[in-house]
Amino acid sequence: xxxxxxxxxxxxxxxxxxxxxxxxxxxxxxxxxxxxxxxxxxxxxxxxxxxxxxxxxxxxxxxxxxxxxxxxxxxxxxxxxxxxxxxxxxxxxxxxxxxxxxxxxxxxxxxxxxxxxxxxxxxxxxxxxxxxxxxxxxxxxxxxxxxxxxxxxxxxxxxxxxxxxxxxxxxxxxxxxxxxxxxxxxxxxxxxxxxxxxxxxxxxxxxxxxxxxxxxxxxxxxxxxxxxxxxxxxxxxxxxxxxxxxxxxxxxxxxxxxxxxxxxxxxxxxxxxxxxxxxxxxxxxxxxxxxxxxxxxxxxxxxxxxxxxxxxxxxxxxxxxxxxx
Length: 325
Fold this sequence. Notes:
By secondary structure, the chain is α+β, with helices and mostly antiparallel strands. It contains ten helices and eleven strands.
């Protein structure tokens, strides 16, 4: 057996892999207390060193990172779950009390959770226009929607037609768990080159290990809401489906994208309209569907290479975990 790769790049990749596994653990357990000792154990570092490593590699302290994810999750839940009380949402997001949550939310957004949910006063919240814009979209219906049972599959299906020639068919159906390998990017990812680079590196890794085949699926997980999270903190994971039990290596991590009931929206669109497609699913379809988002991971599945499409379009499934409203 050849000696392991001990180059600086490989060593850093190992650190990145460990930190990413901790971040995955945090995201799965935001509703409960998370100690430094527990998270350090996931990373296989001592608590003392892990705290320093995490701060250096992520750019914020461990406490601030956990707090930020909790507040950001609460900000989304306040809008998409209007029937739930603020206290219930605070507890579900891991805050010990409504008072603790109120202080953290006000510090993060400059307004109370009640005011956030009600959109706030336009005059006093002018500086929050970027934040308030998606909230407005969630409650504004602009397109035409028809719901029916697919005659072949008996699956509830919606066809939505939006201004600007954007149409989609959305099905609500069960999806399996997806064991995947992933490469993660942290920072702005609006440019297609970022996603192309991640998948190119991931495919090269998979080919060399005999893990890329005709049934391999390309999934993209955006862990944060780009309308809420600062650009330099956005996390994006490019994923390839693999057999369960595949071993992670350095920066190549493994995780399982949970299955269950999903709204699956089918699009054939130019890549630059993907953000608009998400708005259709979350802001146009969801409020009137009878479903609400679940806490499992959302993801995109690319079903073609847009470079091979005669019009340069991507065949894209947007997959959102749902549960009854």
